[in-house]
Amino acid sequence: MSWMKALENYARTAPEELPKDILLSSTEHTVTVKDAYPKAMYHYLVLPRLPSSLVSSSSRISSLQSLLSGDKEDALRVVKILGDDAELAKSHILEEMRKKHGFEWDVNIGFHAVPSMDHLHTHVISSDLISPALKNKKHYNSFHPTLGFFLHLNDVLEWLTEEKLAGKLHINSAKYEGLLKTDLACFKCDEPFKQIPRLKEHLEDEWKKEKRTAVKQKAMKRVHGTDDGEAQRPAKKTKLASTDETPRTPNKLSEANKAESLA
DNA sequence: GTTCTAGAAC
DNA sequence: GTTCTAGAAC
């Protein structure tokens, strides 16, 4: 099965040899490429390059599970480096969003709990989940930001930094794979859907709605010098959605997984 | 991971 | 009759 090795090939190729249209950037330790079948408007992968001086054995970075089962300091170093470059890719995406669409929306950074392809890779993916390559339930659920299959990089960092977790961090594959069969529901409004095509229509509507709101707020800011004309009066408590990153509700399965690891 | 397609769902 | 899903791929 050669497709499983596709990412490993990227990781082993000198970045300057990679096609220009797929390479975003590279460093001593990482390479950032466009996902060949993007599941959102913007979708990149950050890979640790091979051979790697970050870990004693290359097999350590064949997967997240493998990384987590090894030395925690090694794992922490690798995840931090991937995270730094993922943040750079995210900044690039946000800039493209501003240029092309006149507003920014969320970009998620994380790992699939049970990946289909070999070699550790971090997804940097815009939260719209609008793309022709998103074709089935597995595709959608694997990037659903709160379902639990998508492991946010910051959560993985937390697992690794909690010193109590000196023991093992195990990913229960069967449990995570079960999540992929979850009934379809919009990650924004929770509305259920029976079919992928209907959900895809809905996601487009959600994105257009988000765009309208963002553009309207920008116009407000131009006129009033604030996000909202009313927000200037401190007496009136307006409940505005923060433009900053709102803390995500910790997903239950990640928490459950952590609890198991602690036990 | 994708492509293809039989047969289920509509 | 057409759309859609889900399992096989040597």
How would you characterize this protein structure?
The protein has 263 residues and is an alpha+beta fold. It is 40% helix and 11% strand. Strands 1-2-3-5-4-6 form a 6-stranded antiparallel β-sheet, sandwiched between helices. The longest helix is centred in the first third of the chain and has 30 residues, at 72-101. Residues 258-263 have low confidence and may be disordered. It binds a DNA duplex (10 and 10 nucleotides) through residues 1, 3-4, 6-7, 36-37, 115-117, 133, 135-138, 194-197.
List the helices and strands and how they pair.
Layout: H1 6-12, E1 23-26, E2 30-34, E3 43-48, H2 64-69, H3 72-101, E4 107-112, E5 122-126, H4 137-143, E6 150-152, H5 153-161, H6 173-179, H7 196-224, H8 252-262
Antiparallel strand pairs: 1-2, 2-3, 3-5, 4-5, 4-6
Helix pairs in contact: 3-5
This protein binds a DNA duplex (10 and 10 nucleotides) through residues 1, 3-4, 6-7, 36-37, 115-117, 133, 135-138, 194-197.
CATH architecture: 2-Layer Sandwich
How many separate domains? 1
Low-confidence stretches: 258-263
Number of helices: 8
Instruction: Please give the number of β-strands.
Output: 6
% residues in beta strands: 5-15%
Largest sheet: 6 strands, antiparallel
